Structures are given as C-alpha cells and as structure tokens.
Amino acid sequence: MSLSERLGVGPGDLVALRLPPGPGWLEAVTDLWAAGAAILPLDVRSAPAEVRAILALADPRVIVTAEGTEIRDTGGSIDERVGLVMPTSGTSGTPKLAEISREAVSAAVHSSTRALGASMNDPWVACLTPAHVGGMLVLLRAALLGAPVLVHEAFEPERLAAEAASADRTLFVSVVPTMVHRLVSSGAALPGVTLLVGGGGLDRPAREALERSGARVVTTYGLTETCGGVAYDGSPFPETDVRFASGGLIELRGPTLMSGYRRDPQATVEAFTIDGWLRTGDVGALDEDGRLGVWGRSDDLIRTGAEKVWPQEVERALAGHPKVADVAVAGSADPEWGQHVTAYVVPERPDDPPSLAELQAHLEGRLARFKFPRELVGCTRIPRTASGKVRRGELR
To answer: I need a labelling partner for 121 at 20 to 30 A (CA). Which of 142, 220, 315, 372 fits?
Structure first.
C-alpha cells in the first residue's frame, strides 16, 4: 500500500513531510504528487520552535516524520489546485508559506527542461534539501517527467564525481554557492555534468575552475515565489516577463508564480502589484542583449558617503582570495560616512586567516576603492538560508 493510500489523502489535503535526507523523500513526493495531495516540505535541520511556527501557520491534515505519522482531524483544507506549500523566510527570518499551484510547478519544470536543452530521460542528482524549492523541483522531475533521480543523503564532491564518471548521459545537479566552493576545493573531475547554481552570485574564478573540471555551469535567478529559477545565465524564460519599478526594483510575471501566501492575505497583497506582477525585492537591470543582471536585495544596499555598494559584488570578488572559505559583506555604522563596508570571513585555515590589508590588496584592480572593506570580522560560519543566501541581519 502506498503512502497516500495509507494516509487516505488526495486533492484538498496538505501533507507535511519532515524526513531525514535520503531516497525516502523521492518515494513520498512522487506518490503524494500522483495522488493530488499538496506537499509541505520541512527541513529536518530546523529547530523545534521553527517547525512549530510553520505547522501552526500551515495547518496540514497530515504530518509525516521519521518517527511516525500524525493525522489531524482538525487540519485545515487547501485549494485542490495547490501542489506545493514552500516555506520561505527570505533573509528576514520571518516564515511565510508560498502556495504554488500544480500548473505552476509543471510550467517551472518544463520551462527549465527546455532552457537547459535537456531530455526527459536525463538523470538528476538530488543533493539540496527538499525544503528549498530547487531541491524539491529535482525530486518532482521524477513525478512530472519520469526522469531518473539519484538521491544523495549528503553533498559529497567525491560521490558526485563518481556518478559523473559512470553516467552515460548528461548529469544535472542543482547546487548553491557553498557547494560550489567545496567542489572547487576538492578538485573533482566533472565531465558531462551540468551544474545549476542558485542562491547567490558566482565569482569568475570559481566558474572558471568548474569549467576546467569539465562541468557546464548555469547560474539561475528566481525565488521560492517564482517556483525556482526563471532566468538562466541572465536569460529569462520565454514565458517570463520582466519589468522594473522605481529604483530598478525587479518585477516578474509568468506561469510559474505562486498563488499567494498561505493564510496571510496581507502579505499576498503586498507581494503583487495592482496589475498582478510579483515584487521581488531585488534590484537589477537588463543589458543590451536582454540579459538580466541582479545587483542584490534593495535593503542590502550599503550607502557610504555619496557612494552605493552592493554586498554581493564585493562578496564575489573576495571569494576568490585563497585564504577565504566563505564570506559575507554588510554595512556598519560609521560616524563620518554613514556606513562603511564590513567583511565577515570564514578563513580557509583558522590558523592563517587573511588580514584586512590582504583582502584590500586582493581587490585592487577588481573593484573601486570605495567598495573595499574597512573592517574585517573573523567568524566560524556565515548564517545562510536553505538556498545559500546570507542572513545579513544575523551577522552581528
């Protein structure tokens, strides 16, 4: 008996899944999708208080964990058209639940497949948490396309290299920048692998290193609210329209957009313009070839004196320093300039961290001097979302 039959769920039912990483996710997601139930993935790494907050807001009918199943008679219903309910806190830490229709999920998967020039039979490796929309979409390729999906319990560059060596077709993998760093550091050979990199910018040295390993690299731009990436290497999907509001704020329209936030009508109204475009909160522009460049979140902008600095640009440049394992950049209060640039650095070797002078020297010729960090804070980790985006509010 399948999971959906055992639970007695179908269209109009919301099922929360909190399972350890592994093939169990693929089996559960494929079955629930076929049954027409809506799926709410929960990150097994989340703290109990975080899970309770999401469940209170979502009000699922069923909760499935490694310890057992809870069927809730008081669980709320959900629109039968909804296929996914994806937790998203952005970089603020305040949870919201994006309701994404089955039609939008299908549009996202098929648009991605066409943009990549992939076939339905090309294999995928699932190594991102399904609580991130990029990880969930890999699993759903099995349900929607019948694509073979190899589920890894953890991200291991050596295992990915072994999969690549034994594959007889192009292998597709969704990763975030922290995984890219591990791949580059490992020196793994990746012939025939297409890496979809989301969740943040990719610095040129890292991209070149991956390409030397034999990999094809595709950077993606999208949000949970757009059901994942809707622009690959700056090229929006043909079905996705892009426009810009005042200050270069990016707005999107297309078939992959969420229906709204579950049980949060005010947040839903604020997320969309009066004529139905999604407000992304990101700032960018189209270049002369129609490619979308994303500069960063509007509230991340650092204003130092009369100049403006986008943290992501500085992060990408600093990530290429050999002593930097991970890095984040934010503005700090400055009595003279209003703000100055601060770099938060996880050193490659704790016994040999980079100095501020070394980082500044690394940026010479790469960035204007007003973008250089004026303060360096050493740390053991960078707080990030499941998609790899920096939680700048937690840096201090």
So the answer is: 220
